[in-house]
Amino acid sequence: MATTEFGIVYAVHIITDHFGSAVSKVCECLLRRGPLSLQDISRLTDIPRLGESDISHNQVKVKDILHLLIQHNCVQAFSVEPPDGSESKATVQYIVLFNNILHRERYSKFSSVVKEELGTQCLKVLGGLLSYGRLTLGQLIQEDADSQKPIGPEAITASLQKLVAARFVERIPSPEPVLGNKEGPASKKKGAKAAKILKEAGSLEERVVEAATPVEAISFPLVFDQGPDSSLADNHSNISAGKRKQRDVESSDQSDEVIWRPNFEELIRRLRHKACVEIVKERRDEACATVVRAMIEVGRSQETKVKTDKSVPVSMGSIYGEVIKTKAGRTMLQERVEECLEQLSATSSYLPAFVIETADSYIVDYKAILSVAQKDEMESVVMRRYGKEAFRLFRYLSQEGRFVETDKIADAALTEKKDTPQILLKMWKDSYLQMQKLAVTGVYMPFQLWKVNKLIVSRQMLDEMYHASLNLCLRLKHEEDSENELLWLPNLEGAFEKRGIHLLAKKELLLAATFKLDDAIMLFLDF
């Protein structure tokens, strides 16, 4: 889904908050203009310095900023092959990774996933990578040694191995992948619609990320040198897609050390799976959620991407075997698991089937489960903003999925015909509905037809959620500044203590609201 205006502003705020205004200028330039070369970024941004300002200084400064953004996985360098027969060299360009910027606000969620599954020692290693973006094993060991509670080189090495085995940490991507010149940035057509340009930019980002991603054997090497002074390293020439090898590397040889980073894709996948289980629990029951969780666990290793519509087929024996491993399913009989699967496979007027039953196996329908939560979120927003009548109109049009005439909508949704056009028009102005006018011979006024386009509504809601998240972050920043100012005030008759408690409570409420709002953003953007 293309980046929206408030999405850009929100991302720029995150970068400003984490790295400062100079870095955010470069980031905003890439967000608004798309992939650019170093020379173009230097020309389009002005990074001031004390005294004088010149092009050569600006280019050096921009290069340092780009390296910083690459270090923190927010920018990817790439180049495009020149046309056949051309003697010109490929120009290195830089593309911003919008989703990775937003992931910086989810580090606490990622940490919770790792802590729950692998424990606190692995959490410490992940925390180092989240803080510094990319590190070698040697750097992780040094970072641990400098901490207040070091766990030791052996524990760091073992924890990193567990994180890589679980796909939570991966080898860094190729620093500068080369794309074919077809559909490259130079092929942009002037005068094209903005939506088309944004869509092309999005597809380019996907191509760059895919081209930069190494094969699995390189991304997740599982055979490590366990020495405390060694590095988890290997040689590209010694690793093929189907074979892993171990190679001793001197710790002093920094060029050969494997550099690691968090694997955001796997971390988001786990959050997606957890969200699906929670949706099933809310719309069905605890037992059904336990069965779905078991099905996801059995088939997870065979999923190849985050946004998978359906899980792999899983047999009854595999499902039951996984169910009884869990605390919630330890006492469940196979008959109860079969009942849950039957319940999950059923459809109704208000719920789709969450599980697809085949001849001898079962499949989790992720798309159906998430669509229920997305529909609920859309309807909730419409209810809060426009009222009950608008909610009924919107729900009816969502279920129809086609253009419907005004009077028919009013009849079906049981709303007053005189009020219906105004309500529909209000939602249309806010991009929650599409409108089409149908001229009929002999009729003075054209008929108005209305439809819910879920993709357009999702994009509109995302833009509003980015805006709301930005406002919450700014408010939170204001409260933190107020809290810092409070430290300089005298403690008069307990005023300091009362004011401090009040600020702390408000801060916790803001953090909770930000956390929940980000869940909604992930539902529409990442899941």
Describe the structure.
The protein is an alpha+beta fold and 527 residues long. It has five domains: 5-100, Orthogonal Bundle (Arc Repressor Mutant, subunit A), CATH 1.10.10; 103-264, no CATH class; 266-369, Winged helix-like DNA-binding domain superfamily/Winged helix DNA-binding domain (Arc Repressor Mutant, subunit A, Orthogonal Bundle), CATH 1.10.10.10; 398-452, Arc Repressor Mutant, subunit A; 458-525. The protein is 57% helix and 8% strand. It is built from 21 helices and twelve strands. Strand 11 (434-438) and strand 12 (447-451) form a beta hairpin. The protein is globular, with a radius of gyration of 27 Å.
How do the helices and strands line up, and which of them pair or pack?
Layout: H1 5-19, H2 21-33, E1 36-37, H3 38-44, H4 55-71, E2 75-80, E3 92-96, H5 98-103, H6 107-118, H7 120-132, E4 135-136, H8 137-145, H9 153-165, E5 169-171, E6 178-179, H10 194-212, H11 216-219, E7 259-262, H12 264-283, H13 286-299, H14 316-323, H15 334-345, E8 355-357, E9 362-364, H16 366-386, H17 388-400, E10 404-405, H18 406-413, H19 420-429, E11 434-438, E12 447-451, H20 454-486, H21 495-525
Parallel strand pairs: 2-6
Antiparallel strand pairs: 1-3, 2-3, 4-7, 5-7, 8-9, 10-12, 11-12
Summed up:
The chain has 527 residues and is α+β, with helices and mostly antiparallel strands. It contains 21 helices and 12 strands. About 10% of the residues have low confidence.
- Tell me the span between the first and last alpha carbons: 11 Å
Total beta strands = 12
Helix content: 55-70%
Describe the sheet with the most strands: 4 strands, mixed
- Identify the overall geometry: globular
